Amino acid sequence: MAPNKDTMFRSADMSLTQLYIANEIGREVVSALGELGVMDFRDLNSETTAFQRTFTQEIRRLDNVERQLRYFRSQMDKASIPMRSIYEFDNPFVSPSTSEIDELSDKAQSLENRISSLNESYETLKRREVELKEWRWVLREAGGFFDRARGQTEEIRHSLDNDDAPLLRDVEQHEAAADRSFSVMNIGFVAGVIPRERIASFERILWRTLRGNLYMNQSEIPEAIINPENNEEVHKNVFIIFAHGKEIIAKIRKISESLGADLYSVDENSELRRDQIREVNTRLSDLASVLSNTKSTLDAELTAIGRSLAAWMVIIKKEKATYETLNKFSYDQARKTLIAEAWAPTNSLGLIKSTLQDVNDRAGLSVPTIVNQIKTTRTPPTFFKTNRFTHAFQTIIDAYGTIKYQEVNPALPTIVTFPFLFAVMFGDFGHGCILFLAAVAMIHYERRLLRSKLDELFSMIFYGRYIVFMMGIFSMYTGLIYNDAFSLSIPLFKSMWKWDNNGAGPTATRDDGYTYPFGLDWKWHDTENDLLFSNSYKMKLSILLGWAHMTFSLIWSLVNARHFHTPIDIWGNFVPGMIFFQSIFGYLSFTIVYKWTVDWVKIGQDPPSLLNMLIYMFLQPGTLDNPEAPLYRGQAKVQVVLLMMALICVPILLFLKPFYLRYEHNKARALGYRGIGENTRVSALDDDDDEGHTMNGGRESFGDDDDGIAVITQDIGHGEDHEEFEFSEEMIHQVIHTIEFCLNCVSHTASYLRLWALSLAHQRLSIVLWSMTMKNAFAITGIAGSIAMVVVFYMWFMLTVAVLCVMEGTSAMLHSLRLHWVEAMSKHFMGDGVAFEPFSFKALLEEDPVE
Amino acid sequence: MANGWSPIIGLIIVAIFCAAAWIFAPKGENQTVWRSTLVLSAVSMYLMWGAITFLAQWHPIISPVRNDIRVDPGSGHRF
Questions:
Q1: Which domains, from first to last, does chain A contain?
Q2: In angstroms, rounded to a whole number, what is the distance separating the alpha carbons of residues A425 and A315?
Q3: Within chain A, which residues score under 50 in pLDDT?
Q4: Which of B3, B59, B66 sits opposite A599 (nearest CB)?
Q5: Are A224 and A235 in contact (CB under 8 A)?
Q6: Quick one: which of B44, B52, B40, B51 has its CA closest to A8?
Q7: How far is Cα A544 from Cα B41, in angstroms, rounded to an integer?
Q8: How many domains does chain B have?
């Protein structure tokens, strides 16, 4: 059978294929198919858990490599080293061999070790540096304390010996004067640094535990100290505490350490202290050079990694996906072959076969990879080949539901109807131009924009750039029809109206026999009664377009019924539904057009009201609102006939299909057919041979195979449970359908009035914006006028883009979306399909991009 | 210039355009998209112009009334 050409009208022909792959080249085959991206593999091991599958080991190993690559990435981010973009590689999509993967994983391992050891030593060095810096601060600050404290020894002693008799003071004073050393006084001290926010509690605790027996001095370190572990800045204070007695000193040490202070040794002798400072300085400068060496080595290493990291990430990601797919295959122990089942577009089978042949030839294997087509009752997945232009439109439909296999694809007409209905609401030539130019710019810079990171709103607009493009074109057209450009008129042709009283007005008369050729007459702009006219016009426009759109959509249900060979859907659903809809709303549309074509002024008759006509048609069939002035002769009779037709259609719609289905079912049962799952068997037909053949269909090739394949064979039967015919269910379904259809005819027609409401709102809003900004600016003259003009123009333009184009555009788009999803698609869309999710590296990388 | 025949002439032109679009649509895998898009665009644009907007103005029931001219309030009615 020659397969049909795949078009967007119906989803592509799919075949369930079975692949027999030699175990040795399993990985190569799957990776080649991943590059092709046209096969949707079925999971043949759905009962086994992820751990029990064949290639779990490989996946774990690749997970580890992936983690290492992510570690490199985070280290590079930390060191702010850029990664070479994936787009700069010549071809990152060459599939590597197994040994190359092994090499890569070894390389990643050794690089990880190297980076982490470098990191570790860098951190140790950094910690040392911080310690030295703190020590230097302590030495510096403590020097100041000592000098000050020396002058205050008196007071210290005084405070220490507070309770003592003043008699002794002289002696000790003398002694202190002789030798002003603390050690002689048996005064010890503790010096160190502590985070600034802890200083208050530190002091309080010390004071309480030592009962005030201390002298504390502290000062702030002006620069922040960086914690090497987490790169956070900490403000710290230097403190020095003098106290009396060894035990107290020991206690102070313990308290300070427990509060997170770092203690440093300081010599009280100023000479020694100076030496200490000098030593610390030399050590610091040594350390700095070692640090910068380590840092540059680390950076060089990371830069080297960064040059190829993106490619590695892609390779590992693909490799992992390959093994995950291989895990879906079943393994035939006896024959050392992998067996896979996959859905693929029938048109791609040739490509698949040649690719597999290629892989085989490269591997030099004599056993070919076998591709079998299987006949099955399963529903094939729905697949549409889209291009850049159609993709966004297909997404609109897919967002609502997955299209049934081979039913009419609503996305095809949506390419026109979606932007067109949008434009009916958005009609303004100027705003249409803005949309069009924006879309053209996005399409022109497509390649560059695809690669750059976009914010959420813009990326959404960019995704729908071709929709915006079509919207722009149609908005310009409807703008011309409405004669609106930024709410101003476009006098392209001679008007059909002439102001009375030599152009003074206020009334106008028609230029006889002449109708404004394109769009609305511009003379209606800024008139007293323009709303009266445009409301009537736009309301009728909405009804007519809605009728056309719904009739168009309803016809697709006929096309679907013919394609699926279900004539009952034609006679039980389409025909009565169509008659019902046309005899009411088709008639309404006809009367609207008919009323326009009659020259009511000429025949000197008042035009009848269509709304009243419709109401009377239902409430008092056979009588007219105004019997003297009918729309046409015999109107009352025609309306009665139409109403009768509509009413007769309701029971047909309600009962024909379920009763026909019951009749079919009973006929089949009477002939002895049974459902596959039913236990009761007619003994005469209980013939194993026959049964086996009918059930197996075209699968004789492996029908007699052993266990490994039997599993698959069973699996095919599992998914599609034979549906039992249940009359009541069918009836309920049809009742719901009938009620829905009939009510929806009314509510959906009314729903199209949103076209009128939104286009009216859009037009009024742009008029208000113009009259509040630009019109005022035109009124000012002179230099002030030109300055005001520039300012106001910018304001007006920004508001036009932000409010009228973006906001109003979004709302019009949402309304158009609803008209498609609800009003149009409810007429024919079945939407119980299964999405086609091919195993494709391209899709994989798009979903989870490496950047 | 434009009279009652305009929508009919327009219809003929659109029909010719649709036929041409159907026949001359670029061959290849996007032929269906070209055909459907061109034909539907032509039909919907025709509907908007000829079948709706033109007909609505063919035999107008109301005529425009200027609002930039103040009618003397004494004259009894204001538009």
A1: 139-277 (3.30.70.2750)
A2: 49
A3: 1-2, 165-180, 679-720
A4: B59
A5: yes
A6: B40
A7: 16
A8: 1
**DSSP secondary structure, A126-142, as one string:** HHHHHHHHHHHHHHHHH
- The pLDDT score that the predictor gives to residue A658 is 94
User: Which is it for strands A187-195 and A214-220: parallel, antiparallel or unpaired?
Assistant: unpaired
**Residues of B whose CB is below 8 A from A515:** 2-4, 6, 54, 57-58
- The answer to whether residue A477 neighbours chain B at the CB level (below 8 Å) is yes
Could you count the other beta carbons within 10 Å of the beta carbon of residue A752? Answer: 23
Burial A449-469 (b: 16+ CB within 10 A, else e): beeeeeeeeeeebbebbbbbb
- Give the model confidence (pLDDT) of A419-477 as tens digits: 999 999 999 999 999 999 999 999 999 888 888 877 888 888 899 999 999 999 999 99
Q: Which two tokens stand for residue A426?
A: 């958005």
Of A15, A58, A21, A705, nearest to A340 by C-alpha is: A21
As a whole number of angstroms, the distance between CA A766 and CA A429 comes to 12
Instruction: State the amino acid at position A293 in one-letter form.
Output: N
Residue B66 lies in a domain: no
Cβ–Cβ below 8 Å for B51 and A515: no
Q: How far apart are the C-alpha atoms of A475 and A418, rounded to whole Å?
A: 12
Residue ranges making up the domain that contains B37:
26-59
pLDDT tens digits along A144-200: 777 776 666 555 555 555 555 444 444 444 444 444 455 556 677 888 888 888 888
The mean predicted confidence, pLDDT, of chain B is 84
Tell me the three state secondary structure of residue A382: strand
- Contact predicate A763/A789, CB 8 Å: no
